[in-house]
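RESIDUES AND SHAPES:
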Amino acid sequence: MSTKKRRDIQESAIRAFFFACGILAVLVLVGIFLTLLGTAVPAFREIKIAEFFGHTRWDPTSPEKAEYGLLSMIVSTLMVTAGAMLLAVPVGIGVAAYLSDVAHWRVREVLKPVVEILAGIPSVVVGFLGIVLFGPALAKLFHTANGLNALNGSVLLAIMSLPTIISISEDALNAVPKAYNEASLALGASRWQTLVRVKLPAALSGIIAACMLGMGRAIGETMTVLMATGNARSFPHGLLDPVRTMTANIAIELGEVPYFTTHYYALFAIGLVLFVMTFAVNLAADVVLRRYQEREQ
């Protein structure tokens, strides 16, 4: 067998392997969606869709009448996630810009591993910090009965999202061609002007992806919000109210609910809603990235 033919066979095998990996990932995703869909649909034989999405009261074990209103948990999830992004995005991008363009290499050698270690801290440990550190501090600052509320969850989720936002944003900034930087400085711009008006816009696609991935981490987080947000099922009216997110509700109730009951199927319906929300965030990020890349070309 000639060398060229052997190389062609190897390349074909490698292409087939990566194609199979891609197909496997798609099949896993489709399998998860179909499992959620198949287990969630029976819930709507007894629950009206308008009641499920439009009512605010979730009380499936009520002796009088079981109620399955998801609106409070949807608002709680979005409120905690939005609060986390308001805190994490400016801080994360600022740290990434500092690491890529401002920090001395010795500082970078210390700070970069610290950020990466932050990503490895278990969520239950972050939840403990919310109970013993941030919660009492917020209660004292805002004069509330306790600090287990949406703001506490937002602060903790922001901390958990920071490593993702910082690492990917810094990689995006470092990937900007040096010619951009050199051309800007040669035209008389300062380092600050070059960073803000040249490098950040050039790396915007990667920074948006970093923020979206951070948001995905915040939406899907369970243990931290379970420990630090109070788990009240009432409709939240502000960041200082205790809330229960969809992930926390599934974690609390799924272990004790009887199988194949309306309550059991309703919890899978919540999982399906969470899956669709996460998918929509990723899809929106992909659309934004494509439009930005097309505009850059």
Observations:
- The first helix runs from residue 3 to 40.
